[in-house]
Amino acid sequence: MLRRFRLEEPGSISEASELLSRFGENAKVYAGGTELLLAMKEGLVQYERLINVKNLKGVSEVTSADGMIRIGALCTHHELETSALLRDKLPSLHKLEQNVANVRVRQSGTLGGNLCFAEPHADPGTLLIALGAKLVAEKSSGKREIAAEDFFVDAYETSLQADELLTEIRIPVPAPQARSAYLKFGYLERPSVGVALAFKLNGGLSDVKVAVGCAGPAPRRVPEAEALLNGKSREEAARSLVEAGAVAGRASQAISDLHGSQDYKEHIVGVLLKRAFQAAAS
């Protein structure tokens, strides 16, 4: 059972930020609660106050403007998996959202909550890194953008400051020649390995981005694997995938656990990178 706590109901981002500043480590932001409440029930974490941001205005829409797709942090996974805008502009993210956890989680869990909780075996962060996303952090004194690849520090740890809230995810609208894919593998409830690949295909590959997640403590971009594919023809890139997969596997910081051994996970990274390339290039 949950221990007693006080539920705060701020009316704005600024008020929520001030509450975080006032109560410090004794308070936590509450949105969908699909991860947080489970951790509290298990006694893994305990907070005297939860700051309910569910009803805040202006942070639960999906829009497109100024060459960016803007996703409010309070958008649920279900809202994203049924978004016509994502389906048309970002099909790889749309498909990912259709396969997050299960129906119950997608109905109440939010994209912002997923990113902020930073659970190692979560899907969205890996693909957002490959898509070049920027995350908007806001507090009472202002806001800033954080590159998705700089947002995740470690397991359950992000680069958000103590009084900041994640309010928006900004993703560049892909060019016509842009391709991307995200693939995952797992035999337990959570994925064991996730791989995201994005590039432009116009005769050859350019602007290649590779990201790996779920295998280690946090999703990571892999510039060394990108360099092996960037500037290559489709055929040359295909021949480089084994080496790129091995590099990405080592960079995943895979940890041996119930999801598999380190060597096994590193091998799966290579398999998924090859399949992601085939899916994106087609």
Structure description:
This protein is of the alpha+beta class and 282 residues long. The protein folds into two domains: 1-173, Uridine Diphospho-n-acetylenolpyruvylglucosamine Reductase, domain 3, CATH 3.30.465.10; 180-281, Enolase-like, domain 1 (2-Layer Sandwich), CATH 3.30.390. The protein has twelve helices and 14 strands. The strands form four sheets. The protein has a five-stranded antiparallel β-sheet with strand order 4-5-10-6-7. A hairpin with a 6-residue loop joins strand 13 (204-213) and strand 14 (220-221). Helix 11 (234-251) packs antiparallel against helix 12 (262-281). The protein is globular and about 60 Å long. The mean pLDDT is 97.
- The CATH architecture designation of the largest domain is 2-Layer Sandwich
Strand content: 25-35%
Number of strands: 14
Helicity level: 25-40%
Mean pLDDT: 97
Number of helices: 12
For the sheet with most strands, the description reads: 5 strands, antiparallel
| Dominant shape | globular
> Strands of the biggest beta sheet: in what spatial order?
4-5-10-6-7
Tell me the span between the first and last alpha carbons: 50 Å
Low-confidence stretches: none
> N-to-C SSE series?
EHEHEEEHHHHHHEEHEEEEEEEHHH
| CATH class wording of the largest domain | Alpha Beta
- Class by SSE composition: alpha+beta
In CATH, the topology of the largest domain is named Uridine Diphospho-n-acetylenolpyruvylglucosamine Reductase, domain 3
Radius of gyration computed on alpha carbons? 19 Å
